[in-house]
Model the fold of this input.
Amino acid sequence: MNHKTSKALQGAALLSLLPAAAMAQQRYNIVYIMTDDHTAQMMSCYDKRYVSTPNLDRIAADGVKFTQSYVANSLSGPSRACMLTGKHSHKNGFTHNEHGIFDGSQQTMPKLMQQAGYQTAIVGKWHLVSLPTGFDYWNILPEQGDYYNPAFINMQNDTIREEGYVTNIVTDKAIDWMENKRDKNRPFILFIHQKACHRCWLPELKYLHEYEDKTFPIPETFYDDYAGRQAAQAQEMRIASNHDMDLTYDTKMYDANVQTRLTPNYLNMIGRLSSADRAKYDQFYDSLAIDFRSRHLQGKELAEFKFQRYMRDYAKVLKSLDDNIGRTLDYLKQAGLLENTLVVYTSDQGFYMGEHGWFDKRFMYQESFSTPLVMRLPEGLKARGDISEMVQNIDYAPTFLDIAGAQIPSDIQGESLLPLLRGEHPKNWRKSLYYHFYEYPAEHSVKRHYGVSTADGWKLIHFYRDIDAWELYNLNEDPHELNNLYGKKGTEKVTKRLMKELRRLQKQYDDPIAQ
Done:
């Protein structure tokens, strides 16, 4: 598919798509909501095993749910850079969280939206080191941000600490901008970037007791032995490991007499609470910690205890997030904006909820390679229900430009999703996706790797740098990616096909590793 033909959507052609009620503004508004580390398993329109997310599900119910939605690099900062530029990491220059600085002088989708006449605004998590460019308004969290009484950096470059819970405050700022700060005679694109559900999952205090009576099912791959997968054996993401998942920082089993690796980080975060709120927090978690220490858990019992604490705290953080999705949708309706606004909800990547015994992301395996993507569609975009075409986060930039009637520059690597939102199913839609992860050596010790995933259910991954290991999976028969088929008899033909497709994509995207 040649997305450069989107120029045909400009002018009268674009206006012909819009209902009469939208003609006053002529173009759709866009509200793009992105969370951190929210995975499809923890969203009830995708998976009903764990939690209920009624407000997130409202978005899908009034529009579409993408069932094959993926990222180009499963890491927070790089994923955001891919979204902003419509380009893979090696092209936008932001490949690592730990050593990267986003080049704000480069071409970005918000800048192009400004040129198309849109107002642009972002509130919440930025995580790209340099300050935002291409935005008429911004108010961002420094680095990862804090859950309790967080600081924000404003456009005057002042850092101001605000009282409250971060998810509520980000939503307050987003609604305030829409209601009081924008020019209501012009279309807008607003990026609402929430910190939730990032580690270490500190709940809003009113939800401390939520989910405490729920026992979450243990994933069937929780005790994966990583046989035949060298890179999986080397990672440091194990829930069972007290080095990987810290008893104090991650499960809040604080002991004043025991100093864990991340105890200072934990105490700094909860130290932001007021004395009254800290008392409520301590009363809840201290009672759990006392009971935990009295049980002297080891081995399997300890691993499953940590899993339950992880799941419960994650779910509590998610509950506040879902509340605020509801607040945002309700505001759009009350303000008369809902039927002329595309509402997009996604995460910067997926996350492991105990699958393979892990938390975190980074790998090209399905749980972190995939990401939830639902859209509430305005009048005039007729698709409804599930969309099964393969899409990637580099597609958001060209999609928004297409909706704005702007020309999509030839160097943008993603594809506009607008035909899919109209209910079309182009026969020449992509049949494969490219992935490349760079951040090694670094936290969690996930090896560098790149790979290809195909629409017919195959995946080929190459782990490189300090190892040279290939992995091949038939997702139709092995959806949990436990059986590495690479080099096994009978896979020669499919391996050759996937190798050819991998090199084709590397050439298409001009990834220098192919040269």
Q: What stands out?
A: The first strand starts at residue 29 and ends at 35. The radius of gyration is 23 Å. Residues 1-25 have pLDDT under 50 and may be disordered. Residues 251 and 306 are 6 Å apart (CA to CA).
